[in-house]
């Protein structure tokens, strides 16, 4: 498939901090590519470099056939960027905000395109409402409409649904799914693992390093460990009491449950953990072997990175 983003040995430092540490990968045309990682992993920095906002970097970046260092302005005309804090004009209406961004991109006959985007984002009935009076989800959809006004070939979305209610998140993703049908390339970062599962491929970032990059399923299949999930009420107490059992490689807590990572299932580890819980009078609802989630995969790759 045609590669519309090519990155080779990308590095970016802020003083002594390696924000991006020698990463390389490609993104295909019409793909939805996702970045996941904790705060400070380098997701936003990478996106801002690719959008030509951060100009000083090492390595080679090519976007839609243009070299980023030599042709940033040509690239900017062909991409859209939705930042975490997209700057809508609060005292302008929905219509006026889209009009402003159309003029910013020097689009003269924008009325038809604006109508299409209002229908596409289901914002038509709110076109005369000021941006400051929109809900969080509506603001995100308006910001996306403004990003799409000039028909970009690639859109970069930096945690686009962060802080948005679940219903609005679902609606936003329905819009993105429709965009993919028109062969638009979507490059996004997200703090939500369930959103990353929707991507064709996912890159896992931590401290500027690319820990893994593949389809969500292949990343999960790459875990060569057994995972047990224990659902119980006293998570912290259970965590403290069983983390020292020798056969457990790692233990992670998720709300009302813990996940145990084991190399194999031949050392009666499950029985040892159950015995320990009973000795400590810790009651559990279930103790089952599970299929790894993408979150488990990230923890696994992160642990391997620490060991290296």
Features:
single chain, Alpha-Beta Plaits, 11 helices, 308 residues, Rossmann fold, alpha/beta, four-stranded antiparallel β-sheet, 14 strands, 2 domains, six-stranded mixed β-sheet
Treating each run of at least 4 consecutive H or I residues as one helix, how many helices?
11
- The succession of helices and strands, N to C, reads EEEHEEHEHHHEHEHEEHEHEEHEH
In total, the number of strands is 14
Q: In what range is the share of β-strand residues? A: 25-35%
In the CATH classification, which architecture of the largest domain applies? Answer: 3-Layer(aba) Sandwich
Give the full name of the CATH homologous superfamily of the largest domain: P-loop containing nucleotide triphosphate hydrolases
Distance between the amino and carboxyl termini: 33 Å
How does the overall form come out from the CA principal axes?
globular
Name the helicity range.
Answer: 25-40%
Q: Specify Rg, calculated over alpha carbons.
A: 23 Å
Strand order of the largest sheet: 6-7-8-3-9-10
Biggest β-sheet strands, sense, barrel: 6 strands, mixed
**How many structural domains does the protein architecture include?**
2
Average pLDDT rating: 92
CATH topology of the largest domain: Rossmann fold
Q: What structural class is derived from the secondary structure elements?
A: alpha/beta
Low-confidence stretches: none
For the record, the CATH class of the largest domain is Alpha Beta
Organism: Candidatus Mcinerneyibacterium aminivorans
Pfam families: ABC_tran
InterPro entries: AAA+_ATPase (IPR003593), ABC_transporter-like_ATP-bd (IPR003439), ABC_transporter-like_CS (IPR017871), ABC_transporter_ATP-binding (IPR050763), P-loop_NTPase (IPR027417)
GO molecular function: ATP binding; ATP hydrolysis activity
């Amino acid at each position: 498939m045609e590669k519309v983003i090519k990155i080779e040995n990308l590095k970016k430092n802020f003083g002594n901090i390696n924000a991006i540490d020698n990463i390389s990968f490609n993104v295909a045309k019409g793909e939805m590519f996702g970045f996941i990682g904790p705060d400070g992993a380098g997701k936003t920095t990478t996106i801002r470099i690719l959008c030509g906002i951060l100009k000083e970097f090492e390595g080679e970046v090519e976007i839609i056939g243009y070299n980023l260092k030599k042709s940033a302005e040509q690239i900017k005309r062909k991409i859209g960027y939705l930042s975490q804090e997209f700057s809508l004009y609060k005292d302008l209406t929905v219509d006026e905000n889209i009009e402003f961004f159309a003029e910013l991109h020097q689009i003269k006959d924008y009325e038809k395109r604006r109508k299409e985007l209002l229908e596409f984002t289901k914002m038509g009935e709110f076109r005369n409402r000021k941006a400051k009076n929109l809900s969080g989800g509506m603001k995100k959809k308006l910001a996306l409409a403004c990003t799409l006004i000039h028909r970009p070939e690639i859109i970069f979305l930096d945690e686009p649904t962060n802080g948005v209610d679940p219903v609005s998140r679902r609606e936003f993703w329905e819009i993105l799914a429709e965009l993919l049908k028109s062969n638009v390339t979507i490059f996004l970062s997200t703090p939500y693992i369930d959103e990353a599962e929707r991507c064709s491929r996912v890159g896992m970032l931590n401290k500027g390093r690319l820990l893994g990059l593949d389809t969500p399923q292949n990343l999960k299949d790459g875990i060569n460990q057994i995972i047990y999930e224990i659902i119980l009420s006293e998570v912290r107490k259970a965590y403290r009491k069983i983390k020292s059992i020798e056969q457990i490689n790692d233990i992670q807590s998720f709300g009302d449950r813990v996940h145990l990572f084991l190399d194999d299932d031949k050392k009666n580890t499950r029985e040892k953990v159950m015995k320990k819980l009973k000795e400590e009078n810790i009651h559990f609802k279930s103790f089952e072997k599970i299929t790894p989630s993408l979150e488990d995969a990230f923890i696994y790759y992160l642990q391997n990175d620490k060991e290296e």
